[in-house]
Amino acid sequence: MTAQEIRRKYLEFFESKGHTIIPSDSLIPQNDPTTLFTTAGMHPLVPYIMGENHPGGKRVANVQKCIRTTDIEEVGDTTHHTFFEMLGNWSFGDYFKKEAIEWSWEFLTSDQWLGLDKKRIAVSVFAGDEDAPFDKEAFDVWKNLGISEERIAKLPKKQNWWGPAGQTGPCGPDTEIFYWVGNPDKVPKSFNDDHDNWVEIWNNVFMQFEKSKEGKYVPLKQKNVDTGMGFERIVAVMCGMSDNYETELFMNLIKKIESLSRKSYGNLENHTRSMRIIADHIKAAVFIVGDDKGIAPSNTDQGYVVRRLIRRAILHGKKMGIEEQNWTSLLAQVAINDYKNIYEELERNEKFILSAIEDEENKFIKTLEKGLRELDRIAVEVSLDDKEFAEKKIAMLQRGIILRKLTGKSIFDLRTVYGFPHEMVEEVAQERELVIPQREWDEANRLFEDHQKLSRTASAGKFKGGLADAGEETRKLHTAAHLMLAALRKVLGDHVSQKGSNITAERLRFDFAHGEKLTDEQKEQVENLVNNAIEKNFPITVTEMSVDEAKEKGAVGVFDSKYDEKVKVYHIGDGDETFSYEICGGPHVTNTKELGKFRIKKEQSSGAGVRRIKAVLVEES
Length: 621
Ligand code: SER
Fold this sequence. Notes:
This protein has helices spanning 3-16, 46-49, 97-109, 136-144, 157-160, 231-238, 248-261, 269-289, 301-319, 327-339, 344-348, 350-378, 387-398, 408-416, 422-431, 438-455, 471-492, 520-535, 547-552; strands at 20-21, 59-67, 83-92, 121-126, 152-155, 161-162, 169-180, 198-211, 217-230, 380-381, 404-405, 434-435, 498-503, 508-513, 540-546, 566-574, 577-583, 597-605, 610-618. It is α+β, with helices and mostly antiparallel strands.
């Protein structure tokens, strides 16, 4: 089945169930100043979920273009994208759980439609908590369809709740549908949502609550259904592939990147990752610039996102040795050709897209050359007193290389003058074997924050959609890192010490000494401890003292300051409880209540005896 056949079948199926087919809305939200992009099919439909009449009636279905920048770090694996299409069907106060689930099942498994193997399907439903009860209704519908109880996971809000899209608005429990993409003869009897071979393909959300400003879940007058099926994923599943980038939706882009770079896809892990990032980012840039709104790369709002997508793709191209001039617009042409029959706006705006992307490449190449020359010039030698890197310095000396580092000021300059975003600085430094101590990152963030304060534009608040570079976000994550270190020590023991930390506006990455992989239970305990501390509204206070005094008082942290020098020690807690006490340069928020919800996204090894956690803060849901 081709991709276009799948789109057509989906719409035909829901038309046969009384739905009006509506076109994809713009990628740029019309009336929602809080986010930069349409992030889900339901996003433009919020007014109808809240009770407005939709001209198409109470049942509609469509294929919606979406951009999600929050997942940008995951792009590079087999299933994540910044641009994707979402197949969705909606009930605005019409049908509810029974019909929605039964139709999903029929569409996926009936031979007349997708004909997927029932034995490879598993689902999850909402387990219930203090805000809303266990979704027994959804559970029973699945059971009646013949899914065994072992294949129906009952999961908490973190997995089985969707929305609101902003801080307030419609939301509700959901039921997710997973497909086993591993060996069909070895489908496990029971379902474990952590296993990579169980891929989520469809989410049915039952929007029956509205989250209020006070954080209360108030039942909505009308009960709605919002479903979203990731198109790239279902296409891969239908082709029996576990890598979305091998499907026709990416194949031409990947082939073009192969010929430009003279490398083969799937050969080397890091090249394959770079190819996926390039294909994803250029396609996303094509769709944003091609969206009839005339958005070109710039330093604000959506234009800034496009700029970052194109520039990131270019850096990955450099890594793979692509030298051809204007290669990004050659690639953009491939994306336009692939999609213009379905999204006519790409054809309409073809010239604008190509020239915008070409201009951006030329600009960036010039800046990049200057920036890279600058980077080589401004790196300074790491001193042997710098305990964090002393060993590395000696090891490098044995290879005849002097270990150098980037200072906070130079990172700041690279960022503001030469347009290198955080992750680029990181990548380029790594390539050149330069190190960046956390305190230099902190310094860079502090400088950047001051700079932001001075030049804050009216649009600064709009970066909530995931690419916020504001100091506020890094400040919050920095405080979260302290809470996490304290929590890790409570759960795993006092041997846990910080080995490195790296914070961007989007996430926190933290390396620490510990010999074993964390169990799910341990991760959950850490998350709970951190979230409890957040909920206790602990103030954060700072005191200056000598290193000796800090040690004596039991502070944790890196004690590499010179004798007698004063250090800052941050205290998180209240009169009854000290949750965290840590030496640090700051900056931090003033109260934990500012943080939202803390979530661990990934836990993995980062060298012998060192573990790495990636974590994020999300708006409370
Ligand atoms: N809004 C839900 C999602 O984005 C279902 O469409 O997953």
